[in-house]
Amino acid sequence: MTDWSQYLIAVVLVLIRISGLMVFAPIFSSLAIPPQVKIGFTIALTALLAPIASLHGGGHLVLGFPAVAGELGVGLIFGISLRLLNEMIGMAGVLLGFQMSFSLVNVLDPNSPVETPVLSQMLSLIGLLILFADGLDRTMLSALLRTFVVVPAGMAVVPGRTGAILLSMMGGVFLSAVQLAAPVIAATVMVDVTSALMGRLAPQLPVLFVGLPVKSLVGYGVLIGALGIWPRYIEARFDALLNAAMQMVMAAGTHH
Does the pLDDT at position 109 exceed 60? Predict the structure, then answer.
C-alpha cells in the first residue's frame, strides 16, 4: 500500500513538472496539436517518468504545498526559458515586416488567439521545421528527463533570483531578433538610401512607387539567402537557453 501511495504521489509531481513543457516549450505548446494528442502524450510521458521519480533515492515524495510549488517552478523555468526561442523568431518577423513594408499585413494565426504579422507566422513555421530537422524536440525530452536526476521529485526549491535571471534572458530576445534579421534590415536600408538619393537627383522619377516593390523583392531575396545560416543560429540560441534553464534547475535543487 505504501509503494502505491508513493507511486501516485510521484505521478502527481511528475505531471506538474511536465506541465511547463506542454504549456510553454516550443513544438509541444503549439495550439495546432489537438488537445487529445497532448493529453495522451502527457499521460504516456508521466507513466514513463513516474517510476524513475518514485524509485530515486534522493526524492521526497510528500504531497504538500512546498513540493507542488517546487515542481511547478521547475516546469515553468524549463518551459519559459525555451519559449523565448519562439519569441525571438516572432520578434524577428515583426522587425522584418516593418522594414519590408508589411507592417499592416496581419493574419489570424491558428496557433495564437491574436492576429500575427504574416512574416512572423512564416518565420515561426520555419523555426519549427528547423527544430524538427535538428532533432531538438528529442533534446528537450532528454533534458526534461535529466531534471529528475538533477532535482529529484519533491526536492525543488526555486531561489528568488530566478525571476531576475528570466527577466534578463527576456531582455536578450530583442537583441537576438535583431541579429537574426540583420542581413535583411541592412539590405532594405541600402535600398531606402538608394531610393532617397535617386529622388534627390531625379525628382521626376516615381521613386515612391518603384522603391517599395524593389525593397520587398530585395528583402525576400536576402531572406532566402540568409535562411542557410538560420539552422546553426537557432540551434546555438536553443543550446544557450537550454543550458541557462538547466543551470536554474540545478540551483533549484541545491537551494535548501
Answer: no
CB 239 within 8 A of CB 135: no
Give the 3-state secondary structure of residue 144: helix
pLDDT digits (tens, 9 = 90+) for 43-89: 888 888 888 777 765 556 777 788 888 888 888 888 889 889 988 98
Whether the pLDDT of residue 155 is over 70: the answer is yes
pLDDT at 59 (0 to 100): 59
The kind and range of the H/E element at 108 are strand 106-108
Q: Report the C-alpha gap between 4 and 51 in whole angstroms.
A: 11
Residues in the chain: 256
Instruction: Give me Rg for the CA atoms of the chain.
Output: 23
DSSP 153-197: TT-----THHHHHHHHHHHHHHHHHHHHHHHHHHHHHHHHHHHHH
Q: Which three cell numbers stand for residue 209?
A: 512607387
Cβ-based neighbours of 198, under 8 Å, separated by 6 or more: 205, 207
Q: Domain segments of the chain: what residues?
A: 2-254
Q: 207-213 long-range contacts, Cβ below 8 Å, gap at least 24?
A: 212/101
Kindly report the average pLDDT of the chain as a whole number: 81
Q: What is the pLDDT of residue 1?
A: 37
Based on the number of CB atoms within 10 Å of its own CB, is 38 exposed (0-12), middle (13-18) or buried (19 or more)? middle
The three grid cell numbers given for residue 89, joined into one nine-digit string: 523568431
User: In this predicted structure, what is the pLDDT of residue 60?
Assistant: 64
